[in-house]
Write a structure and sequence with these properties.
The structure is a single chain. Helices cover 34% and strands 21% of the residues. It is α/β, with parallel strands linked by helices. α1 links the parallel β1 and β2. The longest helix has 19 residues.
Length: 267
Amino acid sequence: MSTVTVFTSMTNPEERKDPWKQALNCYEDLADEVNIIGQKFPEEFKWDYFGKIFQDAFNSSKGDWVFRMDVDYFFHEKDIPKIRRILNKYSTSPAIAFPQYQIFTPDRYQLKTKICLALNKKEFPEIKLNGGGDLVLPTLNGKLIEVSDVPNVKIPIYQYDSTFRTKEIIAKDRARFARAWERQFGNFGNRGGGTPELAFNAWFSMIKERYPKHTFKMKMRDHPKYMAPELGKLKEGQFGFDAFGLKQNTKRPFINYLRGYKEKYLN
């Protein structure tokens, strides 16, 4: 049986309203080892700092397989035995890709993308976390490990993007990340700017574009057990309550349902 390490990054999780306790409960159910990094993450930094601490975490992980999990990533408890089985099944692959369910409000989700989260350290210890536009995706021998080149499994990652945060927390956090991006790449890209107002407006424009694509419905019982109780406590002013008003005012064109179905079941 393969051994598993999960590492996750968290900095001032109570202040940032991250679901860190729930995340650790989830990871401990899956992994033989859980490593927490980022506790001393600097307030101001360059973007490549992510890749550096991720690489250090990968290098120090003891598991045969290593999962890099953002603190808002969850597996469903019913899928954990399946994950253990697929790690053994694909023991010669450098990575395994999972579909990511992006959740803004607890009643809906979108299949946002597919990501290589499980990395085979036992067979490929030379994997680096330095690829892609964000400089954190896994590479092997200098080449990005493509989702299309590794096994894709139908076990979703549930991502709870800013669920418990207020506008003020999001604005401050997005501005900090925008400044880090600008230091690295010399521009703010789609992150708006280095002030809380500019960064929040850019982020919320992205949310307004994506939320109409959240065409798959969810009931509270569909969520991982680690998160369902907390989702039931959401209050007005927290993003997950109603996506800052979008829940009541968003229309979803029929074409979005067709595209969502195609992405989830046919691609």
